[in-house]
Amino acid sequence: MSALFEELDYCPTPIGALSLRRRRDLRLGVDVWEIMLGQDFLMTSHFTASEVALGRLGVAACYGEALDVVVGGLGLGYTAEAVLADIKVADLRVVEYLSPVIEWHETGILPLGTKLSDDPRCHLTEGDFFAMAAGDGFDTDRPGRRFDAILADIDHAPDHLLDDRSDSFYRVDGLRALKRHLKPGGIFGLWSDKVTDARFLDRLNAAFPDAWAEPVTFDNPLTGKPFTQTVYLARAENE
Q1: Which positions ≥6 away from 234 have C-beta within 8 Å?
Q2: Which residues make Cβ contacts (< 8 Å) with residue 45, sequence separation at least 6?
């Protein structure tokens, strides 16, 4: 049986102390991996349904074949894994601000092992997703490159941020800046750990010609009750 609790890594970052820990949930009989930033939970392997839904729904909404996709935020890797599960995906760029998270995947200490870093379609890139969205884009070798889908899973919700650097991204002007990096008809997707926020959906509709919310409800194993999170999706103009 696994150790009841083990801290696998700990390091300071520009936005706080980052730690990866694994603990044994005796009630459920499973190991749980948790990423912490200070005292804040970034992700837990207890709940992955909405992260998977972000990748699956985002790719499913795309037009065409040989898709080029960006995922902002690596975490435990479940969104990226869901993207790569679709054979239409030709190239995936995962942008992660915290370099230790990339190292965890490359060394295989997470539940997915080295699955992402071993996939030739997947490129793990250290960078600031929000600065890239406001600037020249997500491929440093090809500034201005456009993508079929850009999916973000970084902050807890549009009004619950990890730090202030991302605040302007969730405004109409920030969303329009992001849209410049989408191909005609391309998809923007956003994960949120909260129920649908009508105010943010209004901002999405102001920036994109078509936007909608996909509630994701699952059984919370800690409470035994249903819990709902949200995937927001928006489509760029077809030009």
Answers
A1: 175, 187, 188, 189, 204, 205, 207, 208, 210, 211, 212
A2: 31, 32, 33, 34, 76, 111
Tell me if residue 228 falls in helix, strand or coil.
Answer: strand
> Which DSSP string corresponds to 43-77?
EETT--HHHHHHHHHHHHT--SSSEEEEEE--TTS
Report in angstroms the alpha-carbon separations of 51 from 42, 172, 230: 12, 24, 10
Domains of the chain with CATH codes: 47-235 (3.40.50.150)
pTM of the model: 0.95
**56 dihedral zone (left: phi>0; alpha: psi -120 to 50; beta):** alpha
Contacts of 200 (CB under 8 A, 6+ apart): 158, 159, 170, 192, 232
Dump the DSSP string for 131-155.
Answer: HHHHTT-S-TTSTT--EEEEEE--S
What does the block give as tokens for 29? 């009989």
pLDDT tens per residue, range 14-54: 888 999 999 988 877 788 999 999 888 888 888 899 999 99
* Contact between residue 92 and residue 149 where contact means Cβ atoms under 8 Å apart: no
